[in-house]
Design brief:
Layout lengths: L18 H17 L3 E2 L5 E3 H7 L5 H6 L2 E4 L2 E5 L4 H10 L9 E10 L11 E10 L4 H18 L5 E6 L3 H15 L8 H9 L10 H7 L11 H17 L4 E2 L11 E8 L8 E7 L3 H6 L5 E7 H10 L12 E5 L2 H15 L5 E3 L6 H10 L4 E5 L1 H6 L1 E6 L5 E5 L4 H17 L1
Parallel strand pairs: 1-5, 7-8, 12-13, 12-14
Antiparallel strand pairs: 2-4, 3-4, 5-6, 6-11, 7-9, 9-10, 10-11, 14-15, 15-16
The protein binds adenosine-5'-triphosphate and magnesium ion.
The site of adenosine-5'-triphosphate has 20 residues, from strand 6, strand 10, strand 11 and helix 11.
Length: 430
């Protein structure tokens, strides 16, 4: 029976044909994070639902509409919709915050959100993210932003705009919430049902609502920047001057509030217009209250997450370069049963030294073996038959140039192949 079960809506397969794109971005993000002193952390795919309700916030779209939760043996669990909550939980639970600060960790993980699937918006997607805990200095904000910028530069992407804002602390928020409530109260009947219920509890969330009616009403809402306390305002001014000194271009966008409740002070987004409506490639900010909320210990912190599907989509649309999948370095074509055993031995010899070697396991004739070697883009082909085994020597063919070179099949096999390989690599680099 033909396979009729398809992958769930909003998920994607990453096949061997395009996995090189993932290897490319994974290598770039890991290498860059390491040069800034970040270490990798790995956390569970699911957590207690309460973790997300308390951190991401129970008035956010993520918690109200997008979480995949299950009740299993009477406990409530949720597939992680983002990485920060679980990472902070893990840092607290493993005592990382008792060590020397700042603590700096990064991760690559899949996230799950029940959203309407479209280009750049999936139900399972992947994030590269990082968290830095311990510093309240605006230099930490600039450090994290410049790390994201370095990654974007290393991918070769152009025209990715950095937008920054400050959404203040609970002190500024109190006055701002009052102003928002006054602004939205006369228009409450026109708001969507979710926003109606947000008006009392968390009016800032209305500014992030995706409903066109709510965003239209919110167009002229008061701006948080006009309500910042002195501490938040000084912090934001200092961050701007550090970014300018670093040569990082940015725009202040007083409308960015971000979709997760834990943010305080700095928020930022890297945005592209090249992949349609879902153009936020990276989003992040400071969350000075989150660790205290989860552990009782006050530790200021900040971080960001990059959507890897959106990053790759943008790279594709801009024609950025990706690493190639490694292809076969030597294909051994045996003729006859004795030659097959010899192929096994020779392949092991080179594989133990790191070469990518394949040989026929399809019982093909020599002609179709050559066809197959071409198809897999083998760099060299070695034909082994009775004569070659008897004389312990053979010819190895460079598939690019067609040139044939003698090679010994005895204990010098690895040495002769690797010197031939290196010589050819040098020539093709010229
Ligand atoms: P958006 O406003 O696009 O919904 P968000 O504010 O919900 O984004 P965050 O929670 O900050 O996004 O997640 C960080 C990054 O993860 C986003 O900037 C984006 O690149 C990526 N991302 C978020 N949701 C999705 C999704 N459903 N599919 C693919 N990537 C996503
Ligand atoms: Mg979202």
């Amino acid at each position: 029976m033909a396979l009729s079960i398809k992958r769930p809506l909003g998920t994607e397969d990453i096949t061997p044909q395009n996995v090189n794109k993932w290897h490319t971005v994974e290598t770039i993000v890991k290498d860059t994070a390491k040069t800034f002193g970040f270490k990798e952390i790995r956390i569970p795919t699911f957590e207690s639902t309460e973790l997300f309700e308390r951190s991401v916030g129970d008035t956010t779209d993520v918690v109200q509409k997008e979480m995949y939760s299950v009740i299993a043996k009477e406990s409530k669990f949720t597939l992680r919709p983002e990485g920060t909550a679980g990472t902070i939980r893990a840092m607290v639970q493993n005592g990382l915050l008792n060590d020397a600060l700042p603590q700096k960790v990064f991760y690559i993980l899949s996230c799950f959100r029940h959203e309407r699937p479209q280009a750049g918006r999936l139900r399972e997607f992947h994030q590269f993210g990082l968290e830095m805990a311990g510093s309240q200095s605006p230099y930490a904000d600039a450090e994290v932003i410049s790390l994201a910028k370095s990654i974007i530069d290393r991918t070769g992407l152009k025209n990715i705009a950095l937008n920054i804002n400050s959404i203040g602390c609970p002190t500024c928020r109190a006055n701002y919430h009052k102003a928002l409530k006054e602004f939205f109260a006369p228009k409450v009947d026109c708001l969507c049902d979710t926003c109606k219920s947000r008006l009392d509890r968390n009016p800032m969330r209305i500014l992030d609502c995706k409903s066109p009616i709510c965003s239209d009403i919110a167009k002229d809402a008061p701006l948080i920047l006009d309500y910042l306390c002195e501490d938040c305002s000084t912090h934001f001014e200092k961050l701007k001057s550090i970014l300018t000194n670093m040569g990082i271009e940015y725009s202040v966008n007083p409308k960015i509030v971000r979709g997760l409740d834990y943010y305080t002070k700095t928020v930022f987004e890297f945005i592209t217009t090249d992949i349609g409506a879902q153009g936020t490639v990276c989003g992040g900010g400071r969350y000075d209250g989150l660790i205290e909320q989860l552990s009782g210990k006050h530790v200021p912190a900040l971080g960001f997450a990059m959507g890897l599907e959106r990053l790759i989509l943008t790279m594709e649309s801009q024609g950025c370069e990706f690493m190639e999948n490694q292809s076969c370095e030597l294909y051994i074509a045996p003729m006859g049963d004795i030659a097959k055993d010899k192929a096994v031995e020779l392949a092991k010899n080179l594989r133990d030294e790191g070469f990518l070697v394949e040989y026929d396991i399809m019982d093909r004739g020599i002609k179709s073996q050559m066809k197959y070697a071409n198809k897999i883009k083998a760099k060299f082909v070695l034909v082994v038959g009775d004569n070659e085994i008897q004389s312990n020597s053979a010819k190895v063919k460079n598939m690019d140039t067609g040139e044939e070179s003698p090679i010994s099949l005895d204990k010098n096999f690895y040495d002769s192949f690797s010197s031939l390989y290196m010589a050819n690599m040098l020539v093709s680099e010229d």
